[in-house]
Amino acid sequence: MAVAKDSTTKTILLVDDEPTLIEALGYNLGKEGYRVVTAMDGVQALEQAQICNPDLVILDLMLPRMDGLEVCRAVRRESTVPIIILTAKDSEVDTVLGLELGADDYLVKPFRLRELLARVKAHLRRAEMPNTRPVRALDRIQFGSILVERDSRKVFRGEQEIVLTLKEYDLLDYLLTNAGKVMSREVLLAKVWGYEYAGDSRTVDVHIRWLREKVEDDPANPRHIKTVRGIGYRLEVAG
Fold it and tell me: What is the CATH number of the domain that holds 96?
C-alpha cells in the first residue's frame, strides 16, 4: 500500500541500471526541490512505485529482472502518473511500444539535463491541471457514440466507460476544444505536453493512433480524428 507523503514536495521515481546516471540525475532533480526515489531493476521499480506513490516516473527501458516495457504496463494498470521513458538511439520499436503502453513521453540517450528538467516540470504541471481546471460551459460533449464528461474527465462509449491515460485524455480534450480546426503536431506538443521541441513528432502520432483505437469504431478509417497530411490532425464531431 502506498504511503502518505508531503503534498508540497513532488516525488520522482527514477529507474535506471546505470549507477552514474542515477547519481547524476538524482542529484540534479534533488537540487530542483524534488524528492527522488531510485530503483535499478524492474522488480524494484514496481516495489518502489507501491511504496512511494510517485508523482512522476523516469523509466529506462533496458532493465534487469523485468524490462521497462513490462514496468510501464504494470504501472499504467494502476495509475495515471506521468511516465517519461529513457531509450537508446537505435530502439525505435521499443520507444513506440512504450508510448502505446501508456508512457507520456520519451527521451533518447544521451540527452541534455536541461531538456529532461523542462519535461519533468511540464508533465507535473499538466498532471495538476484536472484539480484546478475551472468547469466550462460545455462539460458534456457527444460525438458519434462517444460521450466526454469534462467535469469528471470520463469518456464513455454508450454505457461503457473508456479508460484513457492522462495524455490521451488531454489530447482528446484539446482537440475537442478546437473541434473542426487543423492542429499541427507542433501546436499539440506545446499545448498538450506543455513544452516545445523540434524535429520528432512521433509521440503525437502514437498517441493519436492509440486514441483512435479507443474512440473510433474503425480506427483504420477514422470518422472523427482526421489526419491532415503534412500538417497534423482535426477532430470532427459531426457525422
Answer: 3.40.50.2300
Please check whether residues 16 and 70 belong to one and the same domain. Answer: yes
Environment class of 6 (CB within 10 Å of its CB; exposed 0-12, middle 13-18, buried 19+): exposed
Does some domain include residue 2?
A: no
Count of beta carbons in the 10 Å neighbourhood of residue 5: 14
pTM: 0.66
Residue 99 belongs to domain spanning: 11-132
6 is a domain residue: no
101, 76 Cβ separation under 8 angstroms: yes
Find out whether 102 and 82 touch, Cβ atoms under 8 Å: no
22 and 119 co-located in one domain: yes
**Domain end position, chosen among 83, 98, 132:** 132
How many separate domains does the chain show?
2
CA distance 208 to 164: 12
Q: Which three cell numbers stand for residue 56?
A: 512522476
How far is the CA of 171 from the CAs of 56, 75, 151, 163, 204, in angstroms?
A: 19, 21, 16, 14, 9
**Full pLDDT tens readout for the chain, 239 residues:** 344 455 579 999 999 999 999 999 999 999 999 999 999 999 999 999 999 999 999 999 999 999 999 999 999 888 889 999 998 866 777 777 788 788 888 888 888 999 999 989 988 887 776 544 444 446 788 888 899 998 888 999 988 999 888 788 989 999 999 999 999 988 888 888 776 554 467 788 888 998 999 999 999 999 999 999 989 999 998 76
